[in-house]
Amino acid sequence: MMTSVAGGWSVKPRHATGFSLMEMLVVLMVVGVLYAMAGSLLSLAVVDPLQEEVERLRGRISLLQDEALVRSQPLAIGMDARGYAFFVLNDQQKPEPLADDGLFKPYTFPQGYKHSLTLQGVDVVLDKLHPQIFVFPGGEMTGFEWRLRAENGHSRGISVDVRGQLADLPLEGY
Fold first, then answer.
1. 10 found inside a domain
2. Which of 34, 75, 77, 132 could link 68 by a cystine bridge, Cβ 3.0 to 4.6 Å?
3. Domain count along the chain
4. What is the 3-state secondary structure (H, E, C) of 73-107?
């Protein structure tokens, strides 16, 4: 207890009320961790099947570029109305299906998807499965734009330049 110099008044010590700074920081950290976990779980729950199809083709194109480099041999992608397939060019530069590897087996899109292919600014008619996009051992490839459209009008796509650089096309219908 404190007393004034004259001895007339005294100050009683107060008891601290509320939370300390350390307690507040711990609570904020716990809330932040829970928020991050909830956000990551939410993003896993919302899966866009259209994006999955685009990422599948993107990944297979990257693998095909690596395969062309390893084989030192031109490879190709052919598309038709239902899906796509991979080809190898033989010694006479004739395309043959690249069927010896499970990664490059032909792929058919699920029901309800339509896709379009543009080579050098010209829309390609996808009525017959034959090579349209060529991948060369040096990393170069035929430049193209490819778009996949769902029945609800949403579409996603990729573009590839002649150096083999992949980029996303703007979303449509979202």
1. no
2. 75
3. 1
4. CCEEEEECCCEEEEEEECCCCCEEECCCCHHHCCE
